[in-house]
Structures are given as structure tokens and as C-alpha cells.
UniProtKB/TrEMBL annotation, chain A:
Keyword list, A-Z: Membrane, Transmembrane, Transmembrane helix
Subcellular location: Membrane
Family: Belongs to the PRPH2/ROM1 family.
GO cellular component, one term: plasma membrane
Name this polypeptide is given: Retinal outer segment membrane protein 1a
TrEMBL record, chain B:
Protein name: Retinal outer segment membrane protein 1b
Short name of one Pfam family: Tetraspanin
Listed transmembrane segments: 20-39, 59-78, 98-122
Source superkingdom: Eukaryota
Membrane topology type: Multi-pass membrane protein
Cellular location(s): Membrane
Positions of region (Disordered): 333-352
SUPFAM superfamilies linked to this entry: Tetraspanin
A Gene Ontology cellular-component term: plasma membrane
Family: Belongs to the PRPH2/ROM1 family.
């Protein structure tokens, strides 16, 4: 059962080859754009790599970069094929190359679609990774004298200022950790001793946040210490105060930012995917219609082009069989050799 | 005395025309880039216009934009002229157009050089403008309830965070103004009353700075209040503390930023200027070489090209005479239309 059969006159074949040549150049550009977007996404993820616990999400930009490069190669060959297609003398040399070419192309084009799906599917993994990363960042905020953690303070401060966020889920995350180092605490003072005795672990916990949580849009100078104490500040009620600190948590801010990026990239990659599919379908039609003409004296006859000679399942098995045979051959021969040795 | 005479055989003329056509396309792009850079500089100046007192510095990007646009037009004309130059039948129609075109183009191209010089010459003016603008911004920091000034706080805060600076010259500028509004001061407390009484104007002055002066690179949590009092903070000496706040003043930070921008734009503008002058000189040579060919039967003869027919001084005098004559004609035309009675008087001496 032939799939996608079409009659192609000589003029139609010529037009198809010409349009395909132009389309393949656009698709090459599309592949380059995909590669660039992959690089950009990877750079952005690496910039905030210090507040991410794992690098699982990096599979999305990695896939995009691979697919972009592959797509540039595929479309380059597609343009060469359709340049040679109208010359019956030069077309036959592509004969053996075309089957693996189509196999590879379909594989990489499917990979493009998979990368778009992945970018949405990995949102949960990104959120978990950020949750753990930010939790650690906030815990190690005070350790500016510990090698390996000394930059956490600067990282978290700059992150909170740039993304206009405070803490992991909200500003109250800062109340649960000691973010002021012991080096700057006067242990002879009563206040410090009281606070340390007030909890089991002996940590100096306060209802205060670092300065990077302060919102510049607030009409009054920032209140960062004794936030929950209304009497400590004149004309202040922490329940109704909204503009003093950033309300959003950094986890939400970062997830929102990256999802926005991936939505934009996903839309562009999807259009490149459609372009790529149309290029491959056109090359296939051109190839099959030229094969019908090959060997004939009069090249200007009508011919039929099709997408698949047999049905989808049968064609898939045709491609997969050689690969399976290669894998099976290594397993089948040793028992046969043993049986032969036994028989002789 | 002809200025810079050169011989042009037919082949050389053809090559000149072709090279000039290509160069005019490059110069067109260069002009577009100059325009884009002017727009960018203007946008950047506009973004920080709230802390600038005067708009004098805007003349630099305005000039760049005007000249960039004009240069695109000039180069399109130049391209058209050299397309027509190799066809002796189409070239003569440009005859009357070319001399004013050259004057106009040379004037506009020299404006590029003027813009470059201005970008360095106006640095003191920019600094002065920023000094006054920042002083006002810091004075009105607390007035978040006064219409027209309510955004000063946010502007100054975001400026200090983005440019990593504090105050006008340094952080001590904040000690001299009241930057906490009276709405948030408890006038019944002793501390507030003491501070307000301690100075003539009754302002609440303190040795503290807003949070936006805090440096994230500091190893300790930010100290913004009681900066001069070592005893208030544990293990703190304000004389040796360097990383706590930003040490740079915002005026210096902004001047440094804008000078950096203009230093980057400068070489590109210079390149555009040189390219444009090269095109104008080549076009002049082409025009004068082609004028030697017009009217002749054999167009493949050798001709001479020059920049100016006479010397520089004589050409300037000639141009002055031409302009005077044009102005006189305009005046005489007005005079003859308003006083017809003078004519019989002129005839009288003839008859006498």
C-alpha cells in the first residue's frame, strides 16, 4: 500500500527541485538558529548553576544543539540532492546514500520534537533542583570564610536583587536559618545569648532578612530587621506592609524565567521542525519521481512520486531489520560454531 | 592653478566608477550604523535623564542621527551618479545637481568630525549636569509623597544598585541630607528629638545610608546605620572597612560609563567620516573626468580629473560672488517691483 502517491509532470519536477533548493537553505538557517538557541539556553542555565542541585535540565539545550547541527548537515545534503536531481547523469550516484540519509533525518527530526516536549516535561525536575540549591545557598550564606562556600553570599544577594525575589518560597525562609556569621556576633551581649539559648541547635535566629530582599519601590526606607515586631518601627504594620520587601520567592522567580525562555525557544524550534519535515517530504517525492525516470531515453515524461513504497509499519521494519541483524549476528554465530564443532 | 590633477584613461574611469559604486553601498551601511549608534546613545542618555540637570550633551547623539540619515541619502545619490557616469548620454543630467551636492555633502561630513570633538569637549558639562541632578535626587529621596518627586527614591536606589555606587561624590553625601521622611519618624522619642535639635534647620541627620549602597561582595551582612560608631557593631572599624558599602560616587560612575560609550562610538564615527570623504573625493574625480568626455565622439579617450578647477582661495571667492549675485538678484527683483517711479528720473540725465 503506497503512501502519499502523486503524479509529477516534468515541469512540476523542475519547480519542485527549485523550491526545494530554496527551502533547504531556509531550513539550514533554521538549524543554525536552533543550535544558537541551544547554546543560549545552556549559557543561561550555567549562569545560575550555583543554585541548582543537579544538571538534569541540561539535556534540553544539549539536545537542541545536537539537533541544530544535524539539521544543518541534513539540509545541506538535501540542497545538493535537488541540485543534482534534474540531471539524469548525476542523480544515480546518490542512490545508495539516500536510504541511510532518510533514516538519519527522520531520527534527528523526531529528536527535535522530543526536545520541545522535554522542555515542558522537565519543569518539575527543574523546580526540585532549584528548591534544594536555594535551600543550600541560604544555609551557607554566612559561610564567607569557608572555602567552596565563600561565594554563596554574593551569589544569593545578586540573585535576589536581579530577580527581585527573597528567600526560597518567601522571605520567611530567612527566619529559619542563621545567616549572620558567628564572627560578627558579640557573645558577651545579653541579646545574642538569649537568642542562642532560645533554640535547641544554638543558632542565632532573628526575624530579619539580608539587604538584598529590600524593594526599591517602597516609599519608606527599608525595614530588614525586626520585621514581625510592629512596635520596633514607627507607623508600621507588618501584616499590611506589602512594598517593603520582595514578596516573590526566588524559586518561583527562576522557574518562571526559565519556563518563559523555553516557551519562546519551543515555539521557534517547532516551526523549524515543520520546515524540516516539509523539506524531507519534498526530497523523498523528488527522489522517487526521478527514480521512475532513470534509464529512460525521454526524461520529460510524467512519473509518479510517493512517500513510502509500502505501509508505515513495513517500512519501519525494513529500516530496523539491518540494525537488528548487526546486533543479532554477534550472538548467533558462537552457538552455531559450537554446534558445528560438536557435530564434526 | 588646478588642485590635484590626475590623468584618467578609459579603463581607469571604468574601474573608478565600479569601485565607487561598491564603496557607496558600504558607506550606506556605515551611515546606517552611525544612525543606529546615535539612537542608542540617545536612549542611554534618556534613561538616566532624571539625574541630569541639563540636556546639553544630547547634541552629540542628535548630530550623529542627523548625519547618519543624511549620509545614507548622499551615498544613494553617489551610487546613482556613478551608475550613470559610464553612459555619456545619461550623465549630463547630473551637471547642475553636482556642485551644490558636493558643498552640502562636505558640510554634513564635517559635522561628523564636529560630533566627535563635541563628545570629548562636553564632558565637563555632563559632569556638572550630573552633579546638580544627583544632588537634587538625594535631596528629594525622602519625598515619596510629593507629586513630581515621588519616583526619586526608586530612581536613586536602582541607579546605585545598577552602577554599584553610593551618593554623589561618595557615601558621605547621605550624612548631609535628611533622607528619611518625617512620616516615619517618631517625634516623641528622645533620639529623634535630639537629632532634630542638633542642627539649625531642624533636619533628622544620621550617619547612615540607604540599603542600595550595600555591597553584595562584603563578607559580612551590610551595616547601613551608625557607620561612624565603632562601638555599635561587633568587630567593626569604619576607617578600615572597605567592602561594606560601594566606595565609588555615582557621578564618577555615570561619567565613566558615558565616556566609555562615546569612546567606543568614536572610532566607528571616524571610520565613517574617512569613508565618506574618500567617496566624495572619488566622485569629484569621476565627475571632472567625465566632463572632459561629454560632447566628444570617441568616449574612450583619456581625460584629466581634478578636485578644484582653480585654487582653494579663488574657488571660495568665486562661490562668494555667485552667492552675492543670487542675493542681489533677489533684492533687485523686489526693488523694481515696489518703485516704478525711479525710471523717468534715470532717463532725464540722458536727455540733458
Amino acid at each position: 500500500m503506497v503512501v502519499g502517491k502523486m503524479k509529477l509532470t516534468f515541469q512540476k519536477r523542475v519547480k519542485l527541485a527549485q523550491y526545494l533548493w530554496m527551502l533547504s537553505w531556509f531550513a539550514t538557517l533554521g538549524g543554525a538558529v536552533t543550535f544558537t538557541l541551544g547554546c543560549f539556553l545552556k549559557t543561561e542555565l550555567r549562569r545560575r548553576g550555583e543554585v541548582m542541585d543537579n544538571t538534569d535540565i541540561h539535556c534540553v539545550p544539549n539536545t537542541l544543539m545536537i539537533v541544530g547541527l544535524a539539521s544543518m548537515g541534513i539540509n545541506y545534503f538535501a540542497s545538493r540532492i535537488c541540485q543534482d536531481a534534474l540531471d539524469p547523469g548525476r542523480f544515480p550516484r546518490w542512490k545508495t546514500f539516500l536510504k541511510p540519509f532518510f533514516g538519519c533525518s527522520v531520527f534527528f527530526t523526531t529528536l527535535m520534537l522530543i526536545s520541545v516536549i522535554l522542555s515542558y516535561a522537565m519543569k518539575g525536575s527543574l523546580e526540585t533542583s532549584l528548591k534544594i540549591g536555594l535551600k543550600n545557598g541560604i544555609r551557607f550564606y554566612k559561610d564567607t570564610d569557608t572555602p567552596g562556600r565563600c561565594f554563596q553570599k554574593q551569589t544569593i544577594d545578586r540573585l535576589q536583587m536581579e530577580f527581585q525575589c527573597c528567600g526560597n518560597s518567601n522571605y520567611r525562609d530567612w527566619f529559619e536559618v542563621q545567616w549572620i556569621s558567628n564572627r560578627y556576633l558579640d557573645f558577651s551581649s545579653k541579646e545574642v545569648k538569649d537568642r542562642i539559648k532560645s533554640n535547641v541547635d544554638g543558632r542565632y535566629l532573628i526575624d530579619g532578612v539580608p539587604f538584598s530582599c529590600c524593594n526599591p519601590s517602597s516609599p519608606r526606607p527599608c525595614i530588614q530587621y525586626r520585621i514581625t515586631n510592629n512596635t520596633a518601627h514607627y507607623n508600621y504594620e507588618h501584616q499590611t506592609e506589602e512594598l517593603n520587601l520582595f514578596i516573590r520567592g526566588c524559586r518561583e522567580a527562576l522557574v518562571y524565567y526559565y519556563m518563559g525562555l523555553m516557551n519562546t525557544i519551543g515555539a521557534v524550534v517547532l516551526s523549524v521542525f515543520l520546515l524540516q519535515c516539509s523539506v524531507l517530504a519534498s526530497v523523498r517525492l523528488l527522489q522517487t519521481s526521478m527514480e521512475a525516470v532513470a534509464g529512460q531515453e525521454n526524461v520529460e515524461v510524467d512519473s509518479e512520486g510517493y512517500l513510502l513504497e509500502k505501509g508505515v509499519k513495513e517500512t519501519f521494519m525494513e529500516y530496523v531489520d539491518p540494525v537488528l541483524k548487526l546486533l543479532w549476528m554477534n550472538q548467533v554465530t558462537p552457538p552455531e560454531a559450537k554446534a558445528e564443532a560438536g557435530a564434526s | 592653478m588646478v588642485l590635484l590633477k590626475m590623468k584618467f584613461p578609459f579603463q581607469k574611469r571604468v574601474r573608478l566608477a565600479q569601485g565607487l559604486w561598491l564603496l557607496s553601498w558600504v558607506a550606506m551601511f556605515s551611515g546606517a550604523i552611525t544612525f543606529a549608534m546615535g539612537v542608542f546613545l540617545k536612549t542611554e542618555l534618556h534613561r538616566r535623564s532624571e539625574v541630569m540637570h541639563s540636556m546639553d550633551i544630547h547634541i552629540v547623539p542628535n548630530l550623529l542621527m542627523a548625519v547618519g540619515l543624511a549620509s545614507v541619502g548622499i551615498n544613494i545619490c553617489a551610487g546613482k551618479v556613478c551608475q550613470d557616469s559610464l553612459d555619456p548620454s545619461r550623465f549630463p543630467r547630473w551637471k547642475t545637481f553636482l556642485p551644490p551636492f558636493f558643498c552640502f555633502s562636505v558640510f554634513l561630513t564635517s559635522l561628523l568630525l564636529v560630533a566627535m570633538i563635541l563628545s570629548f569637549a562636553l564632558q565637563p558639562s555632563l559632569e556638572e549636569s550630573l552633579k546638580i541632578g544627583l544632588k537634587n535626587g538625594i535631596s528629594f529621596y525622602k519625598d515619596t509623597d510629593t507629586p513630581g518627586r515621588c519616583f526619586q527614591k526608586e530612581t536613586i536606589d536602582r541607579l546605585q544598585i545598577e552602577f554599584q555606587c553610593c551618593g554623589n561624590t561618595n557615601y558621605r553625601d547621605w550624612f548631609e541630607v535628611q533622607w528619611i521622611s518625617n512620616r516615619y519618624l517618631d517625634f516623641t522619642s528622645k533620639e529623634v528629638k535630639d537629632r532634630v535639635r542638633s542642627n539649625v534647620d531642624g533636619r533628622y541627620l544620621l550617619d547612615g545610608v540607604p540599603f542600595s549602597c550595600c555591597n553584595p561582595a562584603s563578607p559580612r551582612p551590610c551595616i547601613q546605620y551608625s557607620l561612624r560608631d565603632n562601638s555599635v557593631h561587633y568587630n567593626y572599624e569604619y576607617q578600615t572597612e572597605e567592602l561594606n558599602l560601594y566606595s565609588r560616587g555615582c557621578r564618577q560612575a555615570l561619567v565613566s560609563y558615558y565616556m566609555g560609550l562615546m569612546n567606543t562610538i568614536g572610532p566607528c564615527v571616524l571610520f565613517d567620516f574617512l569613508l565618506q570623504m574618500a567617496i566624495l573625493v572619488s566622485l569629484r574625480y569621476l565627475q571632472t573626468a567625465m566632463e572632459g568626455v561629454i560632447g566628444q565622439e570617441n568616449v574612450e579617450i583619456e581625460t584629466e580629473g581634478y578636485i578644484l578647477e582653480k585654487g582653494v582661495k579663488e574657488t571660495l571667492l568665486e562661490t562668494k560672488e555667485k552667492v552675492k549675485r543670487l542675493l542681489q538678484l533677489a533684492q533687485v527683483g523686489d526693488a523694481s517691483s515696489t518703485t516704478p517711479g525711479t525710471q523717468p528720473e534715470e532717463e532725464k540725465p540722458a536727455t540733458a
